[in-house]
């Protein structure tokens, strides 16, 4: 053993005598150093990216991202503060080096020489140790002057500008794991429920966080509320729990617009707003007019806000409005959405959200294709809740008294739907409500019933048929489809259009006689 120790000691001395050897204490200090390799904008940017790799990122779609309390959030001022903090650290480091250099000047006698004669004469008399101490002193002065200069606005701005490619993160890298649910105390894997917690990790690149942690307090209050909202229908409660669980997962497995429908005072707004509040920044709002026809504004900035969200809620469409089926198909889809934030670069993202509309009035749907109707799920809210309770704000009461239990209920819904391979079986009440909604919007069947006789041997002039339709549509809904769309619907329903020497005719129907009942 003694022989091994002597051999190791000799080897250590050999290493220490090698050119370029750095003592351990100096090496550790270099790891903590924030001094740039060169005193340029790019050098300062490299120092920033090296010092704050887990605190600062840049994305063209979102601008600067800063990591704080377990979540990455967008904030250019916060990024500016990080760059300012770097200069504070550099200035402190420079002053420390300056004090160390002064001590060395005193220890080597160089300080006495400098005090007793001119700098030039003193330098001419310096020995090697004094020269080294003086060089360190001058270097520290230069570094201190640099750090002070970097604290000017131009220095901060230029540093952040040059650091962008070094800290670049693509939109696709943000919130990339759909199963991670970030909470104030840690992150969970929704496939494994509330037992899957791990500590926050900047590498997860999550930009969202729930407003509280899962728990059990108040679970009975939430169960009582569910019994009231859904009238004790446990099959419907289980279905809605899975819908909400799907919403917690950041990937679209069911392309749907979920419409929570019912008259006022039935709990739908209380239910969905409480769910959204619990999910924190994973939830967002979208104006109902984005989903309807008639708005003239640019919706791309609002679409951009859906990036990374998992629950998007629209509230209270006006009576009689028509649904924009193209927008709904885009939002309730797995296809990429093209959007842009104001004054930011356009970007594309894959939807990660479940779209909810709660309303007293079902929007009218003009399209009859399966592509839109397979996306529409109507959840009936039929309870009649009387205002006899002493609780003035029930949604706030549920959040404060049972918020953790509500989040645990949501997470259990996610675990269940994952275990069931995302097979969402609608209960009878949802099937019936969705079917009734589709029937109410079958405008062509309603037109035929009111205006036409049907028989394979009948025919009608195409122009007369369209004009009758147009008059009927304007009187019943205030809007009529263009002739090309009407003709396509006619043929879609099996009626043939043929041109004869007397004009274009539609076969299989005829307009009712004005004297018919």
Regarding CATH, which class of the largest domain? Alpha Beta
Please give the oligomerization state of what you see.
single chain
The gyration radius over C-alpha positions equals: 35 Å
- Broad structural category: alpha/beta
Read across the widest sheet, the strand sequence of neighbours is 7-8-11-6-12
Report low-confidence residues grouped into runs of 5 or more. Answer: 24-29
- Can you summarize the main beta sheet? 5 strands, parallel
Terminal CA distance? 114 Å
Number of extended strands: 15
Overall pLDDT level:
91
Pfam families: D5_N (PF08706), DUF5906 (PF19263)
Keywords: ATP-binding, Hydrolase, Nucleotide-binding
Organism: Helcobacillus massiliensis
Domain SF3 helicase: 235-394
Please characterize this protein's 3D structure.
Keywords: ATP-binding, Hydrolase, Nucleotide-binding. Residues 235-394 form the SF3 helicase domain. One of its GO terms (molecular function) is hydrolase activity. InterPro entries: Helicase_put_C_phage/plasmid, Helicase_SF3_DNA-vir, NrS-1_pol-like_helicase, ORF904-like_C, P-loop_NTPase, Phage/plasmid_primase_P4_C. This protein is of the alpha/beta class and 517 residues long. The protein has 3 domains: 29-167, no CATH class; 219-438, P-loop containing nucleotide triphosphate hydrolases (Rossmann fold); 443-511, Orthogonal Bundle (Arc Repressor Mutant, subunit A), CATH 1.10.10.10. It is 47% helix and 15% strand. It has 19 helices and 15 strands. Helix 3 (41-51) packs across helix 8 (153-163), helix 4 (76-108) packs antiparallel against helix 7 (128-150) and helix 11 packs across helix 15. The longest helix has 33 residues, at 76-108. It starts with a helix and ends in a 6-residue tail after the last strand.
């Amino acid at each position: 053993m003694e022989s091994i120790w002597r051999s190791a000691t000799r080897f250590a001395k050999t290493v220490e005598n090698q050119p370029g050897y750095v003592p351990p204490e100096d090496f550790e200090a270099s790891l903590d150093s924030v001094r740039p390799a060169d005193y340029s904008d790019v050098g300062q940017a490299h120092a920033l990216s090296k010092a704050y790799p887990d605190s600062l990122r840049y994305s063209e779609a979102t601008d600067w991202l800063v990591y704080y309390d377990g979540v990455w959030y967008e904030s250019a001022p916060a990024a500016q503060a990080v760059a300012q903090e770097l200069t504070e650290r550099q200035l402190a480091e420079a002053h420390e080096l300056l004090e160390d250099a002064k001590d060395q000047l005193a220890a080597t006698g160089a300080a006495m020489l400098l005090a007793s004669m001119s700098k030039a004469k003193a330098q001419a008399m310096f020995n090697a140790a004094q020269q080294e101490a003086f060089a360190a002193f001058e270097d520290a002065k230069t570094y201190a002057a640099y750090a002070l200069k970097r604290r000017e606005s131009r220095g901060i701005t230029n540093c952040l500008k040059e650091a962008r490619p070094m800290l670049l993160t693509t939109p696709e890298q943000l919130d990339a794991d759909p199963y991670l649910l970030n909470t104030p105390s840690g992150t969970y894997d929704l496939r494994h429920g509330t037992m899957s917690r791990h500590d926050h990790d900047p590498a997860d690149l999550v930009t969202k966080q729930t407003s509280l942690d899962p728990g059990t307090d108040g679970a009975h209050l939430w169960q009582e509320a569910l019994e009231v909202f859904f009238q004790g229908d446990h099959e419907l409660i289980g279905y809605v729990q899975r819908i909400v669980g799907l919403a917690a997962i950041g990937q679209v497995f069911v392309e749907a617009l979920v419409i929570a429908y019912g008259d006022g005072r039935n709990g739908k707004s209380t239910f969905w707003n409480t769910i959204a509040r619990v999910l924190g920044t994973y939830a967002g709002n979208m104006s109902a007019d984005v989903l309807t026809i008639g708005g003239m504004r640019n919706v791309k900035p609002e679409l951009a806000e859906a990036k990374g969200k998992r629950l998007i809620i629209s509230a209270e469409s006006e009576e009689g409005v028509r649904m924009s089926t193209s927008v709904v198909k885009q939002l309730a889809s797995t296809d990429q959405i093209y959007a842009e934030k104001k004054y930011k670069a356009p970007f594309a993202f894959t939807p990660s959200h479940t779209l909810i509309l709660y309303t007293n009035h079902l929007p009218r749907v003009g399209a009859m294709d399966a592509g839109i109707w397979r996306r529409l799920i109507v959840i009936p809210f039929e309870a009649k809740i009387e205002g006899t309770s002493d609780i003035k704000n029930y949604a706030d009461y549920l959040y404060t008294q049972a918020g953790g239990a509500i989040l645990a209920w949501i997470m259990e819904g996610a675990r269940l739907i994952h275990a069931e391979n995302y097979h969402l079986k609608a209960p009878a009440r949802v099937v019936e409500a969705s079917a009734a909604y589709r029937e109410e919007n079958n405008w062509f069947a309603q037109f035929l019933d009111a205006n036409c006789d049907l028989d394979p041997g009948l025919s009608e002039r195409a122009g007369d048929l369209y004009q009758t339709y147009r008059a009927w549509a304007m009187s019943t809904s205030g809007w009529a489809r263009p002739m090309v769309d009407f003709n396509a619907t006619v043929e879609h329903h099996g009626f043939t259009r043929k041109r004869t020497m007397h004009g274009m005719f539609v076969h299989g129907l005829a307009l009712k006689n004005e004297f018919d009942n």
